[in-house]
């Protein structure tokens, strides 16, 4: 087996500088030429076994220190430069390795500064949420990434776009579908007859990393076979929306008043997605069916031949003046807690509900894939919500690929529970609701076994004589 070459020039230089030696003095002690030592320090020559032993005997250097790699510092720097603000700065890891090797103290300083930045951003976000709960507007968040700007705009406003809903419903009526007709077939026929676009599903090997691709030259819309029939229908519906309802999408986009072209591009996609759901589940028919089914998502998905996620998403859109449904809201996360979407019929209830409590059943849903978990939860101020959580499966994974699984929470005010079929799964009203909070850093519930962080608003109650249930007891 070939011997691994050890390039440790920066570490040799740090040893020499720490001892206050010149290159000439160190080279003489190691019985090599100053020019050869210079090449070693510049990583143009590896350390030989003889030199390693000489360094260890003359300067009492730990050989592990010389042979070890700066893997820890490199991985920490990699985390820093994976942040969206810095992700485009470096083409690869080589510069990170060089920084970690040549200037470990500077690398450590960069990591500490980044962590302080993240902590400060989290505190500002928590403070903004706290002020919002008390009815105060704040702009503490500063400059936002385009995706964050779009998310904030969509989360704060009602998830209802009148122009898109009305236009989609009117377009659906022009298809003249009879009961039992396949909407996907009708939309594909419209694309072909009106625009000459042919829809084709391609195998995974042909489109290994794409959901869809539109070829302008051949006028073909390619969809990945990874997608379920429901997701393929949504992709076709989005293409129809952009062609037939483009002016309505543009009008709603202008009304959002976003600050950048990138934010507008992201929002345009979200609006097209909204309109696709409106086309697949026309407002009047969907609201009527939802009321009859008492908002049972599985009944609605079967009635409209859509997925659980699509039907649940549509429930949050039922706010047409004069024809409103129960005001649902939803939140989707992955098993690491990363948030993908939050929306609501009247905006996501961030101030009242929060959505950041580890006791919510959306986290438990990952342990029971495909099952709907129902519970009533209560906030510290007494406001109560009915919540339903279930896992969602992403695109079809091949053998050896890890499946993408997220969880979706759908909720409404507990005052509406009698109108919702899921209330039947709740225990008697005399049984107390699950006590939750907005997020650990904003929650002042004492003795909470699930607490992960101390509250921002209270000092820690560290007492050597008395220890509470949580590692973050507060005064």
Automatic annotation (TrEMBL):
Q: Which keywords label this protein? A: DNA-binding, Transcription, Transcription regulation
Q: Which CDD domains match?
A: HTH_XRE
Q: Would you say which domain of life the source belongs to?
A: Bacteria
Pfam families per the UniProt record, alphabetical? HTH_3 (PF01381), Peptidase_M78 (PF06114), ScfRs (PF09856)
| Taxonomic path | Bacteria, Pseudomonadati, Pseudomonadota, Alphaproteobacteria, Hyphomicrobiales
Q: From the UniProt record, which GO molecular function terms apply?
A: DNA binding; DNA-binding transcription factor activity
Q: Where is the signal peptide?
A: none
Q: Which organism is it from?
A: Rhizobium rosettiformans
Which protein family is it in?
Belongs to the short-chain fatty acyl-CoA assimilation regulator (ScfR) family.
PROSITE patterns, per the entry: HTH_CROC1 (PS50943)
Q: Does the keyword DNA-binding apply?
A: yes
For this record, the Gene Ontology CC terms, alphabetical, are: cytosol
- All copies of domain HTH cro/C1-type, residue ranges: 12-66
In Swiss-Prot or TrEMBL terms, this protein is called HTH cro/C1-type domain-containing protein
